[in-house]
Amino acid sequence: MNRVFVGFDPNETVAFHVLNHSIQARASAPVAVIPIMLSQLHGVFKRERNPLQSTEFSFSRFLVPYMSGYEGWSVFMDCDMLVLDDICKLFELKDDRYAVQVIKHDHRPQEDVKFLGAAQTKYEKKNWSSVILFNNAKCKALTPDYVNTATGLELHQFKWLESDDQIGELPGGWNHLVGYDPLLPVEQIQNLHYTEGGPYFDDYIDTDYADVWFKEKDAMLKASQRKAS
Known about the structure:
The protein is an alpha/beta fold. It has helices at 13-26, 64-67, 87-91, 144-149, 152-156, 210-221, and strands at residues 2-7, 31-36, 73-77, 81-83, 100-102, 131-135, 167-169, 176-177, 191-193. It is 20% helix and 16% strand. It starts with a strand and ends in an 8-residue tail after the last helix.
């Protein structure tokens, strides 16, 4: 069974559930969607929150290989996303030559603040870690001890790998950065990433592709009513 780990933050609970629905509704085979919740990682994830963190899963995402028993393949995704294609197609791109596969953005945000007043940090390989296809057996450096003590840049810039040659590339449509990447028809996008702020926040209710997210939310909430005989 394909495993998709999704970063969970209490400030974006609705985002997780809509993303989960978007994955399950389009998947052609069983997929386990697993929230990475700090409330379920007592004794494993011990880092204190860094002031630069915009979400609770900024660092806990790197526990995915550990939580997968360092076996098989797993996907990590931020919760502020919406999958528009069959997630199984993403797993079909796995390549044993690599330890991880990501979308290699050249993301250089101009703003200093993003959703909920969080600081917009700028660094090399920014947003590479927001969608990761993990070859878990080749990620044994990501022990809980390492994830708890490594710097943010060491984790997000994949310095735990021997070289960047171990980082494979995925098609950009699997991590389309809303507000940064060019506007495209949704038919050409596999996964929308509301990286500045999702439409579930008042300040971003009119962001690009907000209508797509609200349509998905409505589909998730749909309940057919039985008519009285």
